[in-house]
Design brief:
Blueprint: H1 5-18, H2 23-36, H3 43-55, H4 89-105
Helix pairs in contact: 1-2, 1-3, 2-3
């Protein structure tokens, strides 16, 4: 990812925090993601973003799917049959999980 790493970091942190991941889990995921970038974000920047988010009392949802500056602009959105029914990536995960559970019961 050449462009949009800071936006992607914002999305990842807020997505996993909203999905009730622990901060230890979020930190591991984010650091592993950052290592995979051709030019990783500075560790101090990642730490400061994690620290700021941890101090916030309220949760911030990740940006909605139709927010152009995010998913489509940084080319991480691959719409499928679930997408027309949702507004936010958290809804996508939930509906995908529900669909998989339903299919396993059959």
């Amino acid at each position: 990812m050449d462009d949009g790493k800071k936006r992607a970091l914002f999305i990842l942190i807020n997505y996993f925090k909203s999905a009730n991941y622990s901060f230890e889990e979020i930190e591991k995921i984010v650091n592993k993601w950052n290592e995979k970038n051709k030019e990783p974000l500075r560790g101090s920047y990642v730490k400061s973003q994690l620290s700021w988010t941890k101090k916030q009392m309220s949760n911030y949802l990740p940006p909605n799917c139709n927010s152009l500056m995010y998913y489509k602009d940084i080319q991480v959105c691959l719409p499928d049959e679930i997408c027309p029914n949702i507004k936010n990536p958290l809804n996508y995960s939930y509906l995908h999980y529900k669909k998989d559970r339903h299919n396993r019961k059959k």
